[in-house]
Amino acid sequence: MAAPSDTPTLFTYSGTLRVVVVSGTGLLAQDANGLSDPYVKVTALPPTPVASSAKAAKAKAADAIFKTPVIKKTLEPRWDAEGSIALAHAGRVHFEVKDDDKFGHNDPMGEAVLPLLALAHGRKVTKVLRLVPGAATDLPPRLGSITVSLQLESAADLTPVYDLDLVDALGNDMELAVEHGLPLPIDGAAATEGIFRVPGNADHILRLKEAANFGKLPEILTEPASDVASVAGAFKLWFRELLVPLVPASYYDAALAATDPPTARALVDSLPEANQNIIEFLARFLYTFTSDPASVEATKMDAKNMAMTRPPSASSRLAPLAAFGPPSP
């Protein structure tokens, strides 16, 4: 379940955000009958939190707002409400759940904040957002969650490097992805213990992804957000978010049966060309670590250990056997 975040983004987004507020689960009872009349207000906010409540209120009022209908007498509402928000230099999306009250103040029921950098560009993404008290400090800690579906259609200044189809992304050329801004852990990686195994900072990884999508990666590679473990995490994230896995589902049984390098090599050769090229690139890159005794000593990552850090989009059997032996010429 995704937790709310007020992590500031490095860039702002303009364009259109399409939102579907689907449902709520385990919401807070605010009425005497033990139920509520919940609705959700969705607001686009600036990229960084605003210091004072007065400034925050002004910022919220200035941005486009989408509001769901009220669902009467329930703690498990089903809204299925669709709307669009025009983004102008926005960085976050704010979801505020309230209890509708005809004769008084609409009581808060919790809120959630989602950075736009967490959304996959151009794809509809479903998120389960845990509600927190936010500014309403008198609320209990457990407020339930809401399920939302979002699709970010950003302006032309965003050129995605992540969340792409293999062929559309690269024209079958992995080096092209690196040239266009895929975070590649090189500086200091060969001397970093646990490289590719020790997790990076989640916020840093998302910032690196965002910078890559905006073509601004070189500008932050000297900043603290670009520690070696986080750059390695951003590199692994690229494989995780491919629309088509390196080893498609139809090859899964054959991959599990590939128990020796020649069989695994033959399986790689049977994959589509784009998949082959990316696996070959990955093999060559990781082999620079596993073939160097000094690097293995410093990182404590020999071929077997490195195989355990395979991208989730590759088969558990195929990755260690096909990607970590000497690459083909």
Structure annotation, total helices: 12
What is the total number of structural domains? 2
Can you tell me the CATH architecture of the largest domain? Answer: Orthogonal Bundle
Could you give a short account of the major beta sheet?
4 strands, antiparallel
Q: Please give the alpha-carbon distance between the first and last residues.
A: 44 Å
Q: Mean pLDDT, nearest integer?
A: 77
Q: Beta-strand percentage?
A: 15-25%
Domain C2: 1-129
Region (Disordered): 308-329
GO molecular function, one term: GTPase activator activity
Domain Rho-GAP: 150-329
Question: Would you kindly provide a written description of the structure presented here, covering whatever features stand out?
Answer:
It is a single chain. With 329 residues, this protein is an alpha+beta fold. The chain folds into 2 domains: 13-154, Immunoglobulin-like; 166-323, Orthogonal Bundle (Phosphatidylinositol 3-kinase, Chain A). It is 31% helix and 22% strand. It has helices at residues 53-62, 166-170, 174-179, 202-213, 217-220, 228-240, 252-256, 261-270, 273-290, 293-299, 303-307, 318-323; strands spanning 13-25, 38-45, 65-67, 78-90, 92-99, 107-115, 124-130, 145-154. The strands form 2 sheets. Strands 4-1-8-7 form a 4-stranded antiparallel beta sheet, with no helix packed on it. Strands 3-2-5-6 form a 4-stranded antiparallel beta sheet, with helices on one face. A hairpin with a 7-residue loop joins strand 5 (92-99) and strand 6. The protein is elongated. It holds the Pfam family C2.
